[in-house]
Write a structure and sequence with these properties.
- It is a single chain.
- By secondary structure, this protein is of the alpha/beta class.
- The N and C termini lie far apart (57 Å).
- 44% of the residues lie in helices and 13% in strands.
- The strands form 3 sheets. A 6-stranded parallel beta sheet has the order 3-2-1-4-5-6, with helices on both faces.
- The chain is globular and about 70 Å long.
- The longest helix has 32 residues, at 199-230.
- It binds uridine-5'-diphosphate-glucuronic acid.
Length: 436
């Protein structure tokens, strides 16, 4: 099938390459010429395991190309919209400028019978509005939210745990749904749930999923706060409640909380949209979820200050991690980087290391000190903070080895990723999040 993908950011670039990898003929379109040049050369513009390989293959096969010219979308049967919907500069609602621009730019190239599949995360009600805008072309809009996780984006795109298609009532909608089934043929062939809904439900599925995940993380972090004043251990608590299959252990990792380009902005946009709809109170708990989450960053900073005797001024602190989570170079709203910046603001001499995210972190905070090699970064530190649980820091760094490099013996475990007993046995003062 001939496919166009409008927007080649995280979502779009992976989607384009993944669609080519399952046999489609794909053109990716983006206004960012630099990004298009990189992608056209087969270079992944960001760190994502497996992306490089499918880009190279796709381009070599001749089935995958990239351009900044929207006219190249002409002739495709399915047009995916994968542009960003960032938080508005003023306020917490989503900025739909890029979605609107993509639809308007695409309109002249749409033919009757084409399918436009929206993947961007949008406020409920957007699809109905966009459908009216493309109606005169005879193309059909479907809303096909994306659930990929950074770090697993390729796998999540090719082999998702579910597919959702919001369609309009009537024959055109049914036809569009069957075209989408053909697009996702490998997943459909293995009976991946394919849920057909109306527009509003499809839009809400996406934000509800992210709101639930954010709530789950903040729930366990709220328990960590209670653990901190009672001497309980939140990791044991999470293990114990996680055995209940109705609760489940995943996403009960207490620590410095969630960040990234999705969860924080999506819960804020959802709350803002609910208020517009006169139902603000229905999701007012999301404001609390956000507040709990942000408090955990401050908690990690306070733990460090306390552990270093009440002040971090001129103390040498090594921060292990900058990315918002492992297997990603993404530093958007990264709790790890935020903690580093706050410590720097308190006068600490902060050294940051990360296996993938240093270039992005440096672009955002050029004044901070970055060291690529983990052991070099650890040398002579007074305190060490684990803030992104890369294997290099969590599993592969032994407390005995770390102790040969640092001056101090203060370990702050912002992700509860270390074995507290092992660190203590090696002579460290160990501090976890919500752990005694
Ligand atoms: C999230 C969702 O998980 C995806 O399903 C969704 O498609 C995506 O947003 C999106 O909307 O595009 P992602 O942002 O890649 O994916 O990251 P997650 O794996 O969800 O992690 C988010 C944050 O939560 C990270 O900062 C992570 O460190 C933190 N986290 C995760 C915790 O603090 N504790 C946990 O137990 C799990």
């Amino acid at each position: 099938m001939r496919i166009s993908v409008i927007g080649c950011g995280y979502l779009g670039a992976v989607h384009a390459a993944a669609m080519a990898s399952i046999g489609h003929e794909v053109v990716g379109v983006d206004v960012d010429v630099k990004k298009i040049d990189m992608l056209s050369r087969g270079e992944a513009p960001f760190f994502e395991p497996g992306l490089q390989e499918i880009l190279t293959e796709g381009i070599a096969s001749g089935r995958l190309s990239f351009t900044s010219d929207l006219a190249a979308a002409s002739g495709a049967q399915v047009h995916f919209i994968g542009v960003g919907t960032p938080q508005q500069k003023e306020g917490s609602a989503a900025d739909l400028t890029y979605v609107d621009a993509a639809i308007d730019g695409l309109r002249p190239f749409l033919r009757a019978g084409d399918v436009v599949a929206g993947k961007s995360t949008v406020p409920v009600g957007t699809a109905a509005r966009l459908a009216e805008r493309i109606a005169p072309t005879g193309a059909t809009l479907v809303w096909n939210p994306e659930f990929l996780r950074e770090g697993w984006a390729v796998q999540d795109t090719v082999d998702p745990d579910r597919l959702v298609a919001g369609i309009p009532a009537g024959a055109a909608g049914e036809r569009a749904a069957s075209i989408l089934r053909a697009v996702y043929h490998p997943a459909v062939a293995k009976d991946t749930p394919f849920i057909v809904t109306d527009y509003a439900t499809a839009e809400l599925v996406k934000v509800a999923a992210n709101a639930f995940l954010a709530t789950k993380i903040s729930f366990i972090n709220a328990m960590a706060e209670i653990a901190e004043v009672t001497g309980a251990d939140v990791t044991q608590l999470a293990d114990a409640i996680g055995h209940d299959v109705r609760i489940g252990r995943r996403f009960l990792g207490a620590g410095i909380g969630f960040g990234g380009g999705c969860l924080p902005k999506d819960i804020r946009a959802f709350a803002a949209r609910a208020e517009e709809l006169g139902r603000g109170e229905s999701v007012s708990f999301l404001r609390e979820v956000d507040a709990i989450n942000l408090r955990r960053r401050e908690r990690a900073v306070q733990l460090t200050v306390d552990a270093l005797g009440g002040s971090v001024f001129t103390k040498r602190i090594t921060v292990l991690g900058a990315a918002f989570k492992p297997h990603s170079d993404d530093v958007r709203d990264s709790p790890a980087l935020d903690v580093a910046v706050r410590l720097h603001g308190l006068g600490a001499s902060v050294t940051i290391t990360d296996p993938a995210a240093i270039p992005n972190a440096r672009r955002l905070h050029p004044h901070l000190n970055y060291v690529t090699d983990r052991d070099d970064a650890l040398r002579d530190a007074d305190a060490v903070l684990l803030v992104t649980e890369w294997d290099e820091y969590r599993r592969e760094l032994s407390p005995e080895h770390a102790a040969t490099l640092t001056t101090g013996r203060v370990a702050i475990d912002g992700r509860n990723g270390w074995d507290a007993a092992a660190w203590r046995a090696a002579g460290w003062a160990y501090y976890g999040m919500g752990r005694p």
